[in-house]
Amino acid sequence: MTLLGQFALWAALVIGLWCVLLSFSGRWQGRPDLSGTVVRSVYAIFGCLVVASLALWKGLISHDFNMEYVWAYTSRNLPASYIFSAFWAGQKGSLLFWAVVLSLFASAAQLLTARRYAHLMPYVAGVTSAVVTFFVSVMLFAADPFERLGFTPADGRGLNPQLQNVGMVIHPPMLYLGYISLTIPFAFAIAALLSRRLDTGWIHAIRKWTLVSWLFLAIGITLGMWWAYVELGWGGYWAWDPVENASLLPWLTMTAFLHSVMIQEKRGMLKRWNFGLVIGTFLLSIFGTFITRSGVIASVHSFTQSNVGYFFLAFLAVTAILAFTLLYTRWPLLEADVELESVLSREAAFLFNNLLLVGIAFSVLWGTLFPILSELVRGTKITVGVPFFNRVNVPLGLLLLALTGIGPLIAWRKASAGNLKRQFIAPVSAGLVTLMVLLAAGVRDFHATVAIALAGFVAGTIGQEFYRGVRARRRMHGESLPLAFARLIGRNRRRYGGYIVHLGVLIYFVAFAGMAFKREREATLKPGESVELSSPFGHTYRFTHLGISQYEALNRIVSAATVQVEKDGRSAGLMTSEKRQHVDSFKRPTFEPSTEVGIRSGLQEDVYIVYAGSVNGTEEAVYRFNINPLVWWVWFGGFVLAFGGLITMWPGGGVSSSAPRRAQPGYEVTLAGAAAE
Amino acid sequence: MTTRREFVCLSLTAAVGVVAAPSLGAANLQTAQDSLAGRGATGTLRDPSAAGRPRQPTDRRDDAEIQAVEQRLACSCGCTLDVFTCRTTDFTCTYSPELHREVLALRDDGKTAQQILDTFVAKYGEKALMAPKPEGFNLAGYLLPGTLILGAGAGLALFIANRKTAVSLSPAAPADSPEVQASPEELDRLRRALADIED
What we know:
The complex is a heterodimer.
Chain A: H1 2-25, H2 32-61, H3 68-73, H4 80-85, H5 91-112, H6 121-141, H7 166-181, H8 183-195, H9 201-232, H10 242-267, H11 271-294, H12 309-329, H13 346-378, H14 386-406, H15 417-440, H16 446-477, H17 481-491, H18 493-514, E1 519-525, E2 530-534, E3 540-553, E4 556-567, E5 570-582, E6 594-596, E7 598-601, E8 605-614, E9 621-629, H19 631-649, H20 667-676
Antiparallel strand pairs in A: 1-9, 2-3, 3-4, 4-5, 5-6, 7-8, 8-9
Helix pairs in contact in A: 1-2, 1-6, 2-5, 2-6, 5-6, 5-7, 6-8, 7-9, 8-9, 8-11, 9-10, 9-19, 10-11, 10-13, 11-12, 13-14, 14-16, 15-16, 16-17, 16-18, 17-18, 18-19
Chain B: H1 4-34, H2 64-70, H3 83-87, H4 95-108, H5 113-124, H6 138-162, H7 184-197
Helix pairs in contact in B: 2-5
């Protein structure tokens, strides 16, 4: 199977190079048959990579430990689901996963894109094939997943215990899907620039793809936070780790694009900016891969590091130079149709929102790279950890949250004083009431208080938008409340789906603010001994250590420490935290013992217990107890955000993509047009 | 064949059994809890090596102040966590327990939190801190993003405010706009509806 896999990779490389050559040479323009060849090459690459993927999976499933990758990431006693996910657990497999999914997306783009964009498709095929070819080259020349060992070990090393978690089965693919799908908008942008078809056509063609990328990245990031929370055991979900930051960067710039593209559609502005955002977002996804793979910056994601990072750096540099040079050559063709009229307009609010999103992306990138910069400039090594990122980014995040509430309240083109007063009075009141409630409740943390009060303001904005929309529908169509609500969303999914996304964002912010009040303590307890910890919501938890049991599971020896939990004097059941020593099928230890935390999640707070180890091999246990407020709401916020994203991208229901609605000068004309519809 | 008397006796017995069961169950549970290994005297683990690195009992001096200091000190194992979080999370790390002992020793010497931090910086360099001191070149790290954003925002606002707009600001309809065939009442209703939506 390794021969077949390698042959498939070589075939993909040759076909990919042929496709790139043909598409960029432009000879297909005079030869429609060559255009068809370019597109069919994309499908052929996908076929080759499917064969290569099946060959790798076959090796994994059949425990072919002569394959270096299978030996390095699996063992005979590894549960089946993790054998499946071992495909992307290591460097080489994840490169193949990336390549095959990208070729799938490239094929889907060719199949699903409307015929009216046919003039772009050979260029799109060329760009996607170039990226796939790069990944295949890295595999063939630096990270071959089908490499064989000189002998056949009796068993494999097994999978890193931190990766033996359901979150790691789902989280990396989701993040990869987000990263990978960013190539499609990038390919359309380059195609539009190459073909000089710089109207809004390319933007309509990629609308769904941008939403798909954004949604997968959002889900991937949230699942990553969940995995870090339940698996790493440090008591939180976001540590500003370079790899976490790398996943956030393209999400921020893609969020900026999703907003600024509306201005181009409605007003014909920000054309250059939108090209820049799409190109920049793609480059950031490659940069993230470079950070993950190179080990140039210390990270908890050290299990994927190798020297292939520098291939990505070279690819990043070449792509950036080519793409921005191309954009520069088309600069004069990208003049705005109209110009901004007022600072007090929705366009300006979107522009400030874009500035802030890109600014935050820069800030995160700056902080991530600052240790390298400091060493270069001063020759001094420094650590840029959580306190630095919080200090720099929390104020920017709060500004962004405020703009989330302000943007929808301002009219297009130019807002009047009366309009502003009418729009802002209810949301501002909601924010002030929230602030007063917080102060009355004794909340004194500045950033958390501001975050929650601003969340109240944004909730007021969203509530007002829904209320007015529903009221207008009921008045005009006489619909019942639930029907009007459902139709309001169904008939304008993009707008109201977007508001639901905003709701998810504000839930995130409130939940993040909650962690400012977390409580933690360490304790060493003999069986029967207790320790108390009070929560920010006024509850008192009492933890009584009951003892430690040891038993063998499928691929590990488990030491389980059990704690009796009492909340305000009433029993809240038992909680267990484990140390797991993973072993191979010969019972030989494979990794250092890992920790499985005990978590009891509630709407107010999570009880989070970590069994650190035992004193002198006895049942006297060292624990860390955490009370983490509002964590459940992080996951719920992620669900709401994903739900809103799905509504936004659901087919139909919105304005036809072929007939973009422009904000017209003159209220009467817009009214008449709307009435006529 | 069960007689009526036997049926009543059986029913009463069953009812008493059902009522008594939870309390008996609780007694059993209590017994079960009491019999858990290690209750009272400390038992020994069958395989201590499987439970990770042997731990020292938490020092009674390990109070909130020590936690606060350690949360400002970076662990040198490459985990990107602070000393307190690392030593209570990555139990294979040998650096953070050692750093913890150093913090305790400095505290025993009567040093304040700031003096402990300064001692660490003097010994290990600036990388010992979780965040660089906001001074000198480090100020660029703290201030540059915010300054750029504020500068760009202010510049953008000024630019928009000062520029001449390309299209007329007049709210009147353009010349080629269609005639509106609607009664004043209809137009008024539309205006109110659109004022509600305010897109």
